[in-house]
Specification:
Helix content: over 70%
Number of helices: 8
Strand content: under 5%
Number of domains: 1
Shape: globular
Radius of gyration: 19 Å
Number of strands: 0
Largest sheet: none
Structural class: mainly alpha
Distance between the termini: 45 Å
């Protein structure tokens, strides 16, 4: 650890880094609340119900970027927006999304499951710590993946099944085909950043009660978005995954 008390390669004093983390988490929470307020209290419910959860969860890690994306893209897919467009004889704006935006929404859909799964797993491991190969982080990756995969597939199931009018069994198979690769790609990006943070930047594990840990998790989620985006693009273009 360096003289500033932060880690191997960062010269930012720990108090400053802590303040940045608290600020980032607070802003992200406010953005998530703003999106949830618009969806649930102002009645801008999404055409696909699962996106009512996806957008606020995206705000937890992407903060202002998620808020901008919601008003730029997501709000156009609300039931209210569609009814307003039809009332004026216009094409619902959510139906005319460019392909890159459809891919991005598909990635956030996958990311919401990963985010909730990782929050659940990390919270569980706080009370019941585990180690694998001598490192807590390796055990955390296994538990994170199990939770993220389970929740992510559930999200995809409740998207695909009603869209395709499938039986429960066929819906589950379709969800597994659609999201297994994208979920794994997301987790690879997330794990990659957390490995850099723990082993290179700080040189030691981060306590889960430390806001800096959750700041690193926010960055990890953005890394997961970047690694899952090309996979989602391939899945959607190939018709394996439905465009959101």
């Amino acid at each position: 650890m360096d003289a500033a008390g932060t880690g191997r390669f960062t010269a930012v004093p720990i108090a400053v880094l802590h303040a940045i983390a608290v600020f980032s988490l607070a802003v992200a929470a406010l953005c998530a609340l703003a999106i949830a307020w618009d969806i649930f209290l102002r009645g801008e419910r999404q055409h696909m119900a699962v996106m009512d959860v996806v957008w606020p969860v995206t705000g937890l890690y992407a903060g202002p970027l998620a808020l901008w994306a919601y008003y730029r893209i997501g709000r156009l897919s609300s039931r209210q927006a569609m009814m307003r467009a039809k009332a004026h004889g216009e094409t619902p704006p959510g139906q005319a999304k460019p392909f890159p935006e459809k891919v991005g929404i598909g990635a956030t859909h996958c990311g919401a499951g990963c985010t909730l799964g990782d929050i659940c797993a990390e919270s569980l491991l706080f009370f019941f710590p585990l180690t694998l190969l001598g490192h807590e982080i390796f055990a955390a990756w296994v538990v994170d993946y199990i939770f993220a995969f389970t929740i992510g597939i559930a999200f995809q199931y409740f998207s695909i099944k009603p869209m395709r009018n499938l039986s429960p069994k066929d819906g589950l198979v379709a969800a597994l085909k659609a999201d297994s690769l994208s979920l794994t790609a997301w987790q690879v990006g997330m794990y990659g950043w957390m490995a850099i943070a723990v082993f290179l930047v700080f040189g030691h594990p981060l306590e889960k009660t430390d806001p800096v840990f959750w700041l690193m998790m926010q960055v990890a989620m953005l890394a997961g978005f970047l690694t899952s985006y090309p996979v989602n693009r391939w899945l959607i273009r190939g018709g394996i995954k439905e465009a959101m």
